[in-house]
Amino acid sequence: MNSRKSIEECRADFPALKRQRMGKPPIYLDNACTTLVPKQVIESIQEYYTEYPSCSGTRSRHWFAQEVNERIEGDPSKGIKGSRQMIAEFINAGSKKEIIFTLNATHALNLVALGFPFRTGDVVLLTDKEHNSNLLPWLKMQKAGRIKVDFIQPDAQDNFDLDAFEQRLKTGRVRLVSMAYTSNITGYTIPAKAITQIAHQYGALVLFDGAQAVPHQTVDVQSLDVDFLVFSLHKMCGPRGVGVLYGKKELLGQQPHEEDEIEQVLAPVIQGGGTVADATYHDYTLMLPPDRFEAGIQDYPALIASGAAVQYLQQLGLDRIRDHETSLNHFLTEELLNRYGDTGWFRIVGPQDAAQRGGILTFEVKRPNAPGLAADLSEKNNVMIRDGVFCVHAYFNEKFGPQWTRPIAHSEHRMVYRVSCYFYNTMEECRVFLETLDEIFKERGYI
Ligand SMILES: Cc1ncc(COP(=O)(O)O)c(C=O)c1O
Asked: What is the architecture of the domain spanning 46-314?
């Protein structure tokens, strides 16, 4: 994996991988849901609670608060790099002030949906495969009569259709393009740079939902020229309950009152302690970004540990992480297609070429008793994968019909399963998954 750290050395950093059940280790292939956590991240959380369990120095001036503050806001020019700066560097943001800490990607998406100054009739353009977190906030705004939600369909090969996209921008009132950079169903990564170029040409802003991209490949906000980017630390070896909203400086505001901002500026929708410079019984003046968006006492240990998580990934190298996941996915894809590709009841969802799917492999099984494979895999050999709709109800309901998870006839059963790899997974783990799946298929009489 890395000149300094082999995959085995990486695995030794993850306490959860040392667990055993039935005398066997866990085989964790549910990384698109959430990842395991290395000891470096756990230790940094523990250090906060044991060494300096106080609020941050942005509020109090004492010793403990200064220690917290340095670890979050520390400036390299002053000798210590805080997690906000580390995250800014991780996505190549121009300034750490463009990094807003949120609870998760969902929270970040809602902050944009509720805080962006849409004009009635503005269109927000999505793909057909958005996670509920990048669909419901927009549907809610549509219900309130603020915006119109529109969808761009993929081409015949299920790839992003840049021509149709440009046509939509030419003819529609698209104000914001909001899309998953990498799909959590298929693992497919959209042509992000071309999308921002075309959108900007027609005056639309772009938000990328980077929940499945930022943990797995280099995402450079300046090179992409993207306006907003959201992601979650729990999908990249970090603590639970921390997300990031990146926004270009000029879109986050500079005025003390939100009503005085120019028309493209995001307003903070949650207000309270930490967000205001001053207040009277009648009015208040806002702090500058990012503070105006981070209301109330924050989860300081998690914010500090977020720095430890991105440092860990950076040391491994995003390109190596991506290469490793792709090679596991190539192996899995080839084996699954060789074994079941011709059966008529097994199908890989999305592009067949593993190179287009990063570490994600989603497959559909159309057989009696198709649900329940994930539980069986766990029960038999501690193999953990995901089943269901992966929070993308709209797509599956559209493709399979609204009642597809509850078919009347046994013979109509179908279920979708997702295997998602990360840098700590091994070929051997993939082999155990394949053999266990084969055993279950045999037991069920599928083969
Ligand atoms: C593409 C995508 N967007 C958004 C989310 C939501 O992330 P979170 O639950 O951390 O807010 C997920 C989580 O699975 C995701 O895969």
From this structure: 3-Layer(aba) Sandwich (3.40)
